[in-house]
Protein backbone atom coordinates (compact mmCIF):
# COMPACT_ATOMS: atom_id res chain seq x y z
CA UNK A 1 0.00 0.00 0.00
CA UNK A 2 1.41 3.40 -0.91
CA UNK A 3 2.05 5.87 1.83
CA UNK A 4 -0.48 8.18 0.22
CA UNK A 5 -3.15 5.51 0.67
CA UNK A 6 -2.05 4.99 4.25
CA UNK A 7 -2.40 8.70 4.79
CA UNK A 8 -5.89 8.65 3.34
CA UNK A 9 -6.88 5.82 5.60
CA UNK A 10 -5.35 7.52 8.61
CA UNK A 11 -7.18 10.71 7.70
CA UNK A 12 -10.47 8.84 7.31
CA UNK A 13 -10.06 7.24 10.71
CA UNK A 14 -9.12 10.50 12.30
CA UNK A 15 -12.05 12.32 10.76
CA UNK A 16 -14.27 9.47 11.90
CA UNK A 17 -12.97 9.97 15.41
CA UNK A 18 -13.59 13.67 15.25
CA UNK A 19 -17.10 13.18 13.94
CA UNK A 20 -17.80 10.78 16.79
CA UNK A 21 -16.45 13.42 19.10
CA UNK A 22 -18.69 16.01 17.47
CA UNK A 23 -21.71 13.84 18.11
CA UNK A 24 -20.61 13.51 21.72
CA UNK A 25 -20.40 17.24 22.08
CA UNK A 26 -23.76 17.70 20.46
CA UNK A 27 -25.37 15.13 22.69
CA UNK A 28 -23.75 16.78 25.66
CA UNK A 29 -24.96 20.24 24.92
CA UNK A 30 -28.68 19.97 25.36
CA UNK A 31 -30.73 22.19 23.14
CA UNK A 32 -33.83 23.93 24.29
CA UNK A 33 -36.44 23.37 21.60
CA UNK A 34 -38.43 26.50 22.45
CA UNK A 35 -35.48 28.80 22.17
CA UNK A 36 -34.30 27.04 19.03
CA UNK A 37 -37.65 27.46 17.39
CA UNK A 38 -37.67 31.06 18.45
CA UNK A 39 -34.30 31.70 16.87
CA UNK A 40 -35.30 29.88 13.75
CA UNK A 41 -32.48 27.35 13.80
CA UNK A 42 -33.31 24.53 11.43
CA UNK A 43 -32.31 20.90 11.17
CA UNK A 44 -31.61 18.14 13.63
CA UNK A 45 -28.57 17.87 15.84
CA UNK A 46 -28.63 14.10 15.77
CA UNK A 47 -26.32 14.03 12.77
CA UNK A 48 -22.59 14.42 12.58
CA UNK A 49 -22.13 18.14 12.29
CA UNK A 50 -23.85 20.70 14.46
CA UNK A 51 -25.26 23.61 12.50
CA UNK A 52 -23.27 26.64 13.61
CA UNK A 53 -26.46 28.73 13.60
CA UNK A 54 -28.09 26.53 16.25
CA UNK A 55 -28.41 28.18 19.61
CA UNK A 56 -27.86 25.42 22.16
CA UNK A 57 -29.15 26.06 25.62
CA UNK A 58 -28.01 24.06 28.61
CA UNK A 59 -30.59 22.04 30.54
CA UNK A 60 -31.53 23.60 33.85
CA UNK A 61 -30.54 21.38 36.76
CA UNK A 62 -33.22 20.03 39.10
CA UNK A 63 -31.00 19.05 42.06
CA UNK A 64 -31.93 22.17 44.02
CA UNK A 65 -35.64 21.81 43.22
CA UNK A 66 -35.91 18.20 44.35
CA UNK A 67 -36.20 18.80 48.09
CA UNK A 68 -39.32 20.92 47.58
CA UNK A 69 -40.68 19.03 44.55
CA UNK A 70 -44.09 17.37 44.77
CA UNK A 71 -44.20 13.62 44.03
CA UNK A 72 -48.02 13.73 43.72
CA UNK A 73 -47.81 16.33 40.94
CA UNK A 74 -45.01 14.24 39.47
CA UNK A 75 -47.22 11.17 39.41
CA UNK A 76 -49.85 13.09 37.44
CA UNK A 77 -47.23 14.15 34.88
CA UNK A 78 -45.74 10.65 34.84
CA UNK A 79 -49.01 9.40 33.29
CA UNK A 80 -47.31 10.45 30.07
CA UNK A 81 -44.50 8.00 30.79
CA UNK A 82 -46.92 5.21 31.65
CA UNK A 83 -47.91 4.75 28.02
CA UNK A 84 -44.54 3.04 27.72
CA UNK A 85 -43.26 2.38 31.26
CA UNK A 86 -44.38 0.65 34.44
CA UNK A 87 -43.11 1.97 37.78
CA UNK A 88 -43.89 -1.10 39.91
CA UNK A 89 -41.54 -3.49 41.62
CA UNK A 90 -41.14 -6.45 39.28
CA UNK A 91 -43.39 -4.66 36.78
CA UNK A 92 -43.26 -5.79 33.15
CA UNK A 93 -41.28 -4.11 30.41
CA UNK A 94 -43.66 -2.51 27.92
CA UNK A 95 -42.51 -0.26 25.06
CA UNK A 96 -39.88 0.91 27.56
CA UNK A 97 -38.30 -0.90 30.53
CA UNK A 98 -39.87 -1.02 33.99
CA UNK A 99 -38.55 1.96 35.97
CA UNK A 100 -38.77 0.66 39.56
CA UNK A 101 -35.48 1.58 41.25
CA UNK A 102 -34.09 3.27 38.13
CA UNK A 103 -32.21 5.94 40.09
CA UNK A 104 -28.82 4.38 40.80
CA UNK A 105 -29.46 1.56 38.31
CA UNK A 106 -26.93 1.07 35.53
CA UNK A 107 -28.35 2.65 32.36
CA UNK A 108 -29.60 0.04 29.92
CA UNK A 109 -29.49 -2.83 32.40
CA UNK A 110 -33.08 -3.91 33.12
CA UNK A 111 -33.43 -7.61 32.54
CA UNK A 112 -35.22 -8.71 29.43
CA UNK A 113 -35.33 -5.31 27.74
CA UNK A 114 -33.63 -4.81 24.37
CA UNK A 115 -32.04 -1.38 24.72
CA UNK A 116 -30.61 0.70 21.92
CA UNK A 117 -26.84 1.10 21.81
CA UNK A 118 -27.44 4.75 22.63
CA UNK A 119 -28.68 3.89 26.12
CA UNK A 120 -26.16 1.12 26.67
CA UNK A 121 -23.38 3.57 25.77
CA UNK A 122 -24.39 5.86 28.64
CA UNK A 123 -22.25 3.40 30.59
CA UNK A 124 -23.05 4.37 34.16
CA UNK A 125 -25.85 4.39 36.72
CA UNK A 126 -28.63 6.93 36.34
CA UNK A 127 -28.29 9.94 38.62
CA UNK A 128 -30.94 12.60 39.19
CA UNK A 129 -29.24 14.97 36.78
CA UNK A 130 -28.70 12.35 34.08
CA UNK A 131 -32.41 11.51 34.14
CA UNK A 132 -33.12 15.23 34.16
CA UNK A 133 -31.09 15.73 30.98
CA UNK A 134 -32.51 12.61 29.37
CA UNK A 135 -36.17 13.42 29.92
CA UNK A 136 -35.65 17.08 29.01
CA UNK A 137 -34.84 15.91 25.49
CA UNK A 138 -34.19 12.19 25.03
CA UNK A 139 -32.79 12.27 21.54
CA UNK A 140 -30.37 15.08 22.30
CA UNK A 141 -29.05 13.33 25.40
CA UNK A 142 -28.81 9.92 23.74
CA UNK A 143 -28.92 10.32 19.95
CA UNK A 144 -30.36 7.11 18.55
CA UNK A 145 -32.43 6.25 21.62
CA UNK A 146 -35.61 4.25 21.07
CA UNK A 147 -37.46 6.46 23.52
CA UNK A 148 -39.60 8.48 21.15
CA UNK A 149 -40.76 10.98 23.70
CA UNK A 150 -40.32 14.66 22.87
CA UNK A 151 -39.24 15.65 26.38
CA UNK A 152 -40.42 17.78 29.28
CA UNK A 153 -39.23 21.34 28.68
CA UNK A 154 -40.10 22.70 32.17
CA UNK A 155 -37.56 22.14 34.94
CA UNK A 156 -40.36 22.16 37.51
CA UNK A 157 -42.17 19.32 35.74
CA UNK A 158 -38.99 17.31 35.52
CA UNK A 159 -38.25 17.88 39.20
CA UNK A 160 -41.74 16.68 40.16
CA UNK A 161 -41.52 13.59 37.95
CA UNK A 162 -38.10 12.72 39.31
CA UNK A 163 -39.35 13.24 42.89
CA UNK A 164 -42.08 10.70 42.04
CA UNK A 165 -39.62 8.25 40.45
CA UNK A 166 -37.47 8.54 43.57
CA UNK A 167 -40.30 7.08 45.67
CA UNK A 168 -40.51 4.07 43.33
CA UNK A 169 -37.60 2.16 44.82
CA UNK A 170 -36.83 -0.31 47.59
CA UNK A 171 -35.02 2.49 49.38
CA UNK A 172 -35.28 5.97 47.88
CA UNK A 173 -31.90 7.42 46.93
CA UNK A 174 -30.69 10.21 49.22
CA UNK A 175 -31.61 13.70 48.04
CA UNK A 176 -28.76 15.62 46.43
CA UNK A 177 -26.27 17.03 48.96
CA UNK A 178 -25.28 20.70 48.98
CA UNK A 179 -22.14 19.66 47.12
CA UNK A 180 -24.21 17.82 44.48
CA UNK A 181 -26.42 20.87 44.06
CA UNK A 182 -23.39 23.12 43.71
CA UNK A 183 -21.80 20.75 41.18
CA UNK A 184 -25.02 20.71 39.13
CA UNK A 185 -25.18 24.53 39.18
CA UNK A 186 -21.51 24.80 38.19
CA UNK A 187 -22.01 22.34 35.38
CA UNK A 188 -25.02 24.33 34.21
CA UNK A 189 -22.91 27.49 34.07
CA UNK A 190 -20.24 25.69 32.07
CA UNK A 191 -22.82 24.20 29.73
CA UNK A 192 -24.25 27.65 29.17
CA UNK A 193 -20.80 29.06 28.43
CA UNK A 194 -20.02 26.20 26.07
CA UNK A 195 -23.41 26.67 24.43
CA UNK A 196 -22.67 30.32 23.87
CA UNK A 197 -19.67 29.55 21.65
CA UNK A 198 -20.21 26.17 20.03
CA UNK A 199 -18.48 27.08 16.77
CA UNK A 200 -15.29 28.26 18.45
CA UNK A 201 -15.06 25.15 20.62
CA UNK A 202 -15.93 22.59 18.02
CA UNK A 203 -13.04 20.62 16.55
CA UNK A 204 -12.06 21.60 13.03
CA UNK A 205 -12.28 18.51 10.88
CA UNK A 206 -11.34 20.45 7.73
CA UNK A 207 -8.00 21.49 9.16
CA UNK A 208 -7.15 17.99 10.29
CA UNK A 209 -8.37 16.37 7.12
CA UNK A 210 -6.16 18.69 5.14
CA UNK A 211 -3.03 17.81 7.06
CA UNK A 212 -2.23 14.47 5.38
CA UNK A 213 -2.44 16.03 1.94
CA UNK A 214 0.38 18.38 2.82
CA UNK A 215 2.35 15.51 4.23
CA UNK A 216 2.86 17.34 7.52
CA UNK A 217 1.09 17.49 10.85
CA UNK A 218 0.46 14.78 13.39
CA UNK A 219 -2.68 13.57 11.67
CA UNK A 220 -0.65 11.97 8.92
CA UNK A 221 1.36 9.94 11.39
CA UNK A 222 -1.50 8.28 13.22
CA UNK A 223 -1.84 4.57 12.69
CA UNK A 224 -4.64 2.86 14.62
CA UNK A 225 -3.64 0.14 17.03
CA UNK A 226 -7.09 -1.44 17.43
CA UNK A 227 -6.45 -4.59 15.41
CA UNK A 228 -3.23 -5.22 17.36
CA UNK A 229 -4.66 -5.01 20.86
CA UNK A 230 -6.04 -8.54 21.26
CA UNK A 231 -2.66 -10.13 20.50
CA UNK A 232 -0.54 -7.58 22.39
CA UNK A 233 1.48 -8.48 25.47
CA UNK A 234 -0.01 -7.05 28.67
CA UNK A 235 3.37 -7.29 30.43
CA UNK A 236 4.86 -4.93 27.85
CA UNK A 237 1.87 -2.67 28.38
CA UNK A 238 2.46 -2.61 32.10
CA UNK A 239 6.06 -1.55 31.51
CA UNK A 240 4.88 1.27 29.22
CA UNK A 241 2.30 2.37 31.80
CA UNK A 242 5.22 3.46 34.01
CA UNK A 243 5.24 6.61 31.88
CA UNK A 244 1.74 7.37 33.09
CA UNK A 245 2.50 6.77 36.77
CA UNK A 246 3.97 10.24 37.27
CA UNK A 247 0.45 11.50 37.06
CA UNK A 248 -1.94 8.55 37.36
CA UNK A 249 -2.72 5.61 39.62
CA UNK A 250 -4.27 2.46 38.12
CA UNK A 251 -5.52 0.93 41.37
CA UNK A 252 -9.09 0.26 42.42
CA UNK A 253 -10.02 3.17 44.69
CA UNK A 254 -6.60 4.72 44.01
CA UNK A 255 -6.11 8.44 44.64
CA UNK A 256 -6.23 11.15 42.00
CA UNK A 257 -2.77 12.68 41.50
CA UNK A 258 -1.97 15.16 38.74
CA UNK A 259 -4.39 13.10 36.69
CA UNK A 260 -7.41 11.00 37.79
CA UNK A 261 -7.16 7.38 38.92
CA UNK A 262 -7.56 5.16 35.85
CA UNK A 263 -9.00 1.96 37.33
CA UNK A 264 -11.93 0.87 35.12
CA UNK A 265 -11.40 3.84 32.80
CA UNK A 266 -12.48 1.87 29.73
CA UNK A 267 -16.26 2.13 29.79
CA UNK A 268 -16.17 5.02 32.24
CA UNK A 269 -17.70 8.31 31.18
CA UNK A 270 -14.89 10.66 30.15
CA UNK A 271 -14.23 13.27 32.81
CA UNK A 272 -16.27 11.57 35.51
CA UNK A 273 -13.88 10.33 38.20
CA UNK A 274 -15.03 11.60 41.55
CA UNK A 275 -13.07 14.42 43.10
CA UNK A 276 -11.01 15.25 40.02
CA UNK A 277 -11.22 18.72 38.45
CA UNK A 278 -11.18 18.01 34.71
CA UNK A 279 -10.69 20.52 31.95
CA UNK A 280 -13.72 21.32 29.83
CA UNK A 281 -11.89 19.59 26.98
CA UNK A 282 -12.32 16.21 28.67
CA UNK A 283 -15.76 16.83 30.11
CA UNK A 284 -17.01 17.83 26.68
CA UNK A 285 -16.17 14.43 25.23
CA UNK A 286 -19.51 13.40 26.69
CA UNK A 287 -19.23 9.63 26.40
CA UNK A 288 -17.49 6.66 27.90
CA UNK A 289 -13.89 5.91 26.96
CA UNK A 290 -13.45 2.99 24.58
CA UNK A 291 -10.42 1.48 22.88
CA UNK A 292 -10.79 3.70 19.86
CA UNK A 293 -11.05 7.01 21.67
CA UNK A 294 -8.18 6.05 23.98
CA UNK A 295 -6.04 5.07 21.01
CA UNK A 296 -6.48 8.58 19.60
CA UNK A 297 -6.19 10.34 22.95
CA UNK A 298 -2.99 8.58 23.98
CA UNK A 299 -1.50 9.09 20.52
CA UNK A 300 -1.80 12.82 20.97
CA UNK A 301 -3.81 14.15 23.91
CA UNK A 302 -3.76 17.75 22.74
CA UNK A 303 -4.99 16.91 19.24
CA UNK A 304 -7.77 14.65 20.44
CA UNK A 305 -8.92 16.98 23.21
CA UNK A 306 -7.60 20.48 22.48
CA UNK A 307 -7.22 22.30 25.80
CA UNK A 308 -6.71 19.16 27.88
CA UNK A 309 -4.66 19.48 31.07
CA UNK A 310 -2.86 16.23 30.27
CA UNK A 311 0.56 17.52 29.26
CA UNK A 312 1.83 14.26 27.86
CA UNK A 313 3.37 14.24 24.39
CA UNK A 314 1.71 10.96 23.44
CA UNK A 315 2.72 7.45 22.43
CA UNK A 316 3.39 7.55 18.71
CA UNK A 317 4.02 3.84 18.13
CA UNK A 318 0.87 1.78 17.53
CA UNK A 319 2.55 -1.33 19.05
CA UNK A 320 3.10 0.59 22.28
CA UNK A 321 -0.46 1.82 22.46
CA UNK A 322 -1.77 -1.66 21.66
CA UNK A 323 0.25 -3.20 24.51
CA UNK A 324 -0.74 -0.44 26.90
CA UNK A 325 -4.44 -0.76 26.03
CA UNK A 326 -4.26 -4.56 26.29
CA UNK A 327 -2.93 -4.17 29.84
CA UNK A 328 -5.26 -1.28 30.72
CA UNK A 329 -8.23 -3.41 29.68
CA UNK A 330 -7.48 -5.79 32.57
CA UNK A 331 -7.35 -2.97 35.14
CA UNK A 332 -11.12 -2.97 35.28
CA UNK A 333 -13.99 -4.34 37.36
CA UNK A 334 -15.56 -5.56 34.11
CA UNK A 335 -12.82 -6.00 31.51
CA UNK A 336 -14.43 -5.06 28.19
CA UNK A 337 -14.37 -7.32 25.15
CA UNK A 338 -11.14 -6.98 23.18
CA UNK A 339 -11.48 -5.39 19.75
CA UNK A 340 -11.14 -7.86 16.86
C1 LIG B 1 -43.31 6.45 23.68
C2 LIG B 1 -42.80 5.58 24.72
C3 LIG B 1 -42.07 6.21 25.90
C4 LIG B 1 -42.49 7.26 26.70
C5 LIG B 1 -43.76 8.09 26.59
C6 LIG B 1 -41.48 7.42 27.71
N1 LIG B 1 -40.47 6.49 27.52
FE1 LIG B 1 -38.81 6.27 28.67
N2 LIG B 1 -38.13 4.79 27.45
C7 LIG B 1 -38.80 4.32 26.34
C8 LIG B 1 -37.97 3.36 25.65
C9 LIG B 1 -38.32 2.60 24.38
C10 LIG B 1 -36.77 3.28 26.40
C11 LIG B 1 -35.52 2.49 26.04
C12 LIG B 1 -34.65 3.46 25.29
C13 LIG B 1 -33.50 2.86 24.50
O1 LIG B 1 -33.16 1.70 24.68
O2 LIG B 1 -32.98 3.63 23.69
C14 LIG B 1 -36.91 4.18 27.52
C15 LIG B 1 -35.93 4.38 28.50
C16 LIG B 1 -36.08 5.18 29.62
C17 LIG B 1 -35.13 5.30 30.69
C18 LIG B 1 -33.82 4.54 30.81
C19 LIG B 1 -34.11 3.25 31.59
C20 LIG B 1 -32.94 2.32 31.76
O3 LIG B 1 -33.20 1.20 32.24
O4 LIG B 1 -31.81 2.65 31.43
C21 LIG B 1 -35.63 6.21 31.59
C22 LIG B 1 -34.98 6.69 32.86
C23 LIG B 1 -36.90 6.66 31.07
N3 LIG B 1 -37.15 6.02 29.87
C24 LIG B 1 -37.72 7.57 31.71
C25 LIG B 1 -38.92 8.05 31.16
C26 LIG B 1 -39.75 9.04 31.81
C27 LIG B 1 -39.48 9.64 33.18
C28 LIG B 1 -40.79 9.28 30.96
C29 LIG B 1 -41.92 10.30 31.14
C30 LIG B 1 -41.52 11.65 31.43
C31 LIG B 1 -40.63 8.43 29.80
N4 LIG B 1 -39.49 7.71 29.96
C32 LIG B 1 -41.51 8.37 28.72
C33 LIG B 1 -40.08 4.69 25.91
C34 LIG B 1 -40.80 5.74 26.43
C1 LIG C 1 2.15 14.85 33.08
C2 LIG C 1 1.04 14.17 33.71
C3 LIG C 1 0.34 13.06 32.92
C4 LIG C 1 0.90 11.96 32.29
C5 LIG C 1 2.36 11.59 32.17
C6 LIG C 1 -0.22 11.19 31.80
N1 LIG C 1 -1.40 11.81 32.09
FE1 LIG C 1 -3.29 11.14 31.62
N2 LIG C 1 -4.10 12.81 32.47
C7 LIG C 1 -3.39 13.80 33.10
C8 LIG C 1 -4.31 14.87 33.47
C9 LIG C 1 -3.95 16.18 34.17
C10 LIG C 1 -5.59 14.45 33.05
C11 LIG C 1 -6.89 15.23 33.13
C12 LIG C 1 -7.03 15.88 31.77
C13 LIG C 1 -8.03 16.99 31.68
O1 LIG C 1 -8.90 17.16 32.56
O2 LIG C 1 -7.93 17.72 30.66
C14 LIG C 1 -5.42 13.14 32.43
C15 LIG C 1 -6.47 12.40 31.90
C16 LIG C 1 -6.35 11.12 31.38
C17 LIG C 1 -7.43 10.30 30.92
C18 LIG C 1 -8.90 10.66 30.99
C19 LIG C 1 -9.45 10.06 32.27
C20 LIG C 1 -10.91 10.35 32.56
O3 LIG C 1 -11.31 10.05 33.71
O4 LIG C 1 -11.64 10.86 31.71
C21 LIG C 1 -6.88 9.13 30.47
C22 LIG C 1 -7.62 7.95 29.89
C23 LIG C 1 -5.45 9.24 30.63
N3 LIG C 1 -5.16 10.47 31.18
C24 LIG C 1 -4.55 8.25 30.28
C25 LIG C 1 -3.18 8.36 30.40
C26 LIG C 1 -2.26 7.32 30.01
C27 LIG C 1 -2.65 5.96 29.50
C28 LIG C 1 -0.99 7.82 30.21
C29 LIG C 1 0.33 7.15 29.91
C30 LIG C 1 0.51 6.67 28.55
C31 LIG C 1 -1.13 9.17 30.75
N4 LIG C 1 -2.48 9.45 30.85
C32 LIG C 1 -0.08 10.00 31.09
C33 LIG C 1 -2.03 13.85 33.31
C34 LIG C 1 -1.11 12.95 32.80
Automatic annotation (TrEMBL):
Coiled-coil boundaries: none
Question: What segment(s) does the record annotate as region Disordered?
Answer: 185-219
Q: Which UniProt keywords apply?
A: Electron transport, Heme, Iron, Metal-binding, Transport
* Family annotation (Pfam families): Cytochrom_C
Q: Does the keyword Transport apply?
A: yes
Can you give the residue ranges of the Cytochrome c domain? 69-169, 232-332
Tell me where the signal peptide lies: none
State where composition is biased (Low complexity): 195-213
| Gene3D superfamilies, alphabetized | Cytochrome c-like domain
Protein name (record): Cytochrome c family protein
Amino acid sequence: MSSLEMNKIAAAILVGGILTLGVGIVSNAIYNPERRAHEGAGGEEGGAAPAPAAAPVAVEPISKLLASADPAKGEAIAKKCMTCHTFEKGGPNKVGPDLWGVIGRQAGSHEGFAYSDAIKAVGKPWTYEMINHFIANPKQYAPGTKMTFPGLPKAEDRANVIAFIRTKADSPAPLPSDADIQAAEDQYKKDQEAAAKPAAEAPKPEANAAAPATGGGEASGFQPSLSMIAAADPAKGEAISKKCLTCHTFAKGGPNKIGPDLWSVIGRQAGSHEGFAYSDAIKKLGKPWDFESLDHFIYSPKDFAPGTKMTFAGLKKPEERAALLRWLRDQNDNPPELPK
